[in-house]
Amino acid sequence: MELWYTQPQTDNIRFSIKVKEELFSGKSPYQQINIFDSDEMGRFLIIDGIVMLTSKDEFIYHDMIVHVPMATNPDVKKVLVIGGGDGGTVRELTRYAGIEKIDMVEIDRMVVEACQKYLPLTASKLNDKRVQLHFENGMEFVRRSKEKYDLIIVDSTDPIGPGEGLFTMEFYKCCFNLLSEDGILVNQCESPFYEKNAKEMRKAVKKIKSLFPISKVYQYNMPTYPSGHWLFGFASKKYDPIKDFKPEKWEALGLETKYYNTDVHIGSFMLPTYVRKMVENP
Ligand code: AAT
Question: Among residues 125, 115, 202, 189, which one has the least CA distance to residue 154?
Answer without folding.
Answer: 189
